[in-house]
């Protein structure tokens, strides 16, 4: 997998018709040279929710060690009831509490999306078609313990780690060592994110961890990384930080450094979600004077990356009566990584432009005949499947022996 890399912080990421009359303008009056701290962030997000109740929903996925809410702002045209097949996208920032730029950029991004809906065509189209979830800080305690202007971690990694002095970027289950997902002996922040990931069908996100060997979707990850880096005026040069050079501003995580227990691998192995890491600053906690310039550098990459959630194929899997089929497997020939359907029978499969053979399978049903699907640049192809009940479940199951099903085993202990 690949990282879009530049100038030490990491940001951890049902089409409906719009009848809004849109003027192509922008409101960026909210860009101020200040970091928004925890209490003020809650006030800001509640204000956005109260002012735009049909479009904005503030929720918490859990509490940090220090008792702070892990806040998420959900933004969509109809946040209370998104239409079928609307893909879910998430941005997660500040996994290391002292890496603060991405946190502030996500706060700016949330305001930008809300305040420009109905004013800017691109933003309006994005919120009409995408269910966006923004978590500025996965480590709110660490952020509050960090020191503005420090370009490296404090002693004993205060701020970088959570309140229990644990690096959250090493605290997820390891895909090679753990035979099942367990919440025991993990930090509350990690458990909250794990449950959030496994209970929501996110399609695309960013992450702040690195990975090892190539994944089956290596070319897709590279394209996603290049998408962000190529839109960033500094990142694309590959030499923003003096001691390192990265061709086109990206690198494979394993070539940079390896780690166990990262969130990116957890998403890829235990959900349908794809993640790319963004390193946004050579300085962990840049001075406030740099914030406006960093917003200008990252606004286009942040928006373009969200739009990538619409690459590839999506559709519904149902039985002959039209009832949705949950946990059906969507298999793409030649790519050894499957996705599965939601309780509503929906699926989303990110793919690069090409022609693919795709099929749907599940136990107790006859496998769907594989179909050829053409994926075009920056477009979504719709491919639905209807599965017939099999009178002979045993023979159906034998036909699935070579199909890779996701079988995540969960233990609370």
From TrEMBL:
Regions of compositional bias (Polar residues) in chain numbering: 390-405
Active site: 279 (proton donor/acceptor)
Peptidase M14 domain sequence ranges: 34-309
Key word Hydrolase present: yes
Keywords tagged on the record: Carboxypeptidase, Glycoprotein, Hydrolase, Protease, Signal
CDD domains: Peptidase_M14NE-CP-C_like
TM regions (residue ranges): none
GO MF term set: metallocarboxypeptidase activity; zinc ion binding
PANTHER family on file: CARBOXYPEPTIDASE D, B, PROTEASE M14 CARBOXYPEPTIDASE
UniProt record similarity statement: Belongs to the peptidase M14 family.
Name of this protein: Zinc carboxypeptidase
């Amino acid at each position: 997998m690949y990282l879009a890399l530049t100038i030490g912080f990491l940001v951890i990421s049902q089409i409906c018709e719009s009848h809004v009359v849109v003027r192509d303008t922008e409101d960026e009056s909210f860009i101020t040279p200040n970091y928004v701290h925890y209490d003020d962030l809650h006030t800001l997000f509640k204000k956005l929710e109260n002012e735009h109740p049909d479009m904005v929903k503030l929720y918490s996925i859990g509490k940090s060690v220090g008792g702070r809410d892990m806040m998420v702002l959900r933004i969509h045209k109809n946040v209370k009831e998104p239409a079928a097949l609307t893909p879910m996208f998430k941005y997660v920032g500040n996994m290391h509490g002292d890496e603060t730029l991405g946190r502030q950029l996500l706060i700016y991004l949330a305001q930008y999306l809300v305040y420009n809906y109905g004013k800017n065509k691109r933003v309006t189209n994005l919120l009409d078609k995408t269910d966006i979830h923004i978590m500025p800080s996965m480590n709110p305690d660490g952020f509050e313990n960090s020191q503005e202007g420090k370009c490296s971690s404090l002693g004993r990694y205060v701020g970088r780690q959570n309140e229990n002095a644990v690096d959250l970027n090493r605290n997820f289950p390891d895909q090679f060592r753990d035979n099942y997902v367990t919440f025991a002996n993990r930090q509350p922040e990690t458990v909250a994110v794990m449950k959030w990931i496994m209970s929501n069908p996110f399609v695309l996100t960013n992450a702040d961890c690195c990975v090892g060997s190539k994944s089956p979707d290596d070319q897709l990850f590279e394209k996603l990384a290049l998408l962000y880096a190529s839109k960033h005026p500094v990142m694309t040069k590959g030499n923003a930080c003096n001691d390192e050079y990265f061709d086109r501003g990206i690198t494979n995580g394993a070539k940079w450094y390896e780690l166990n227990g990262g969130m990116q691998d957890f998403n890829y192995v235990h959900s349908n979600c794809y993640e790319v890491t963004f390193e946004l600053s050579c300085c962990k906690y840049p001075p406030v004077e740099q914030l406006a310039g960093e917003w200008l550098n990252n606004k286009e990459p942040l928006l373009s990356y969200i739009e990538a959630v619409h690459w590839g194929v999506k559709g519904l899997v149902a039985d002959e009566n039209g009832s949705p089929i949950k946990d059906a497997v969507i298999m793409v020939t030649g790519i050894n990584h499957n996705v599965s359907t939601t309780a509503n029978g929906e699926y989303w499969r990110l793919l690069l432009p090409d022609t693919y053979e795709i099929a749907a399978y599940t136990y107790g049903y006859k496998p769907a005949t594989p179909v050829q699907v053409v994926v075009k640049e920056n477009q979504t192809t719709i491919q639905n499947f209807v599965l017939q009940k099999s009178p002979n479940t045993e023979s159906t199951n034998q036909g699935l022996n070579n199909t890779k099903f996701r079988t995540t085993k969960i233990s609370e202990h």
